[in-house]
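Shall we go through a protein fold together, starting from nothing but its sequence? Label the sequence line and the structure token line clearly, so we can match residues to local backbone shapes. Would you write everything just below, so we can both look at the same thing?
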Amino acid sequence: MGQKGRRQTHPQNEQVLDGEEHTIPSSITGDIFLSRYISVKTDFPQNYSRLQLALSRIGYFRRGTLIRRLMTCGKAGCACKASPPRLHGPYYQWTRKLDGKTVTVNLSAQQAKLLEGWIATGKELDRIVAEMERMSLELTERMLHELPSPTRKAPVRRHHAEQGDASEKLPD
């Protein structure tokens, strides 16, 4: 491994990393055939593998928005109406879409702290998947364009019966 000029095998993609451009087989077909046509930079599979590893480490996640509110009440003599006001709260609310409808839930401070982490994890998941999609689109686009184009066959010309033959078959 530490020898000069020795190649290292990348375990995730079973490819040779040698500091130069190299080829990657399609993970969809599993066919080494494609590797003869497609060249990519060495860091591409390494970066994609890092994203796969990060994705495998994603824990629980939630979608939505968490807000912390300080509010006034309806009582006329309350301290929340004074100048400067001393507002009630904090109150925590989690808002999300559920079956196409907006749903808001009031939470305790402890619940809000848990949800804050889960929402952050959901955003990290979105970031990882978006980057994986961007990289996949880039590579698969290269694969499609570097493969030989399909050849079109010349249209076959059919010779129809000559006009004279057709006229002979008409009734008198």
About this structure: The first strand starts at residue 8 and ends at 10. The two ends are 94 Å apart (CA to CA). The helical segments are 43-56, 109-146, 163-168. The mean pLDDT is 76.
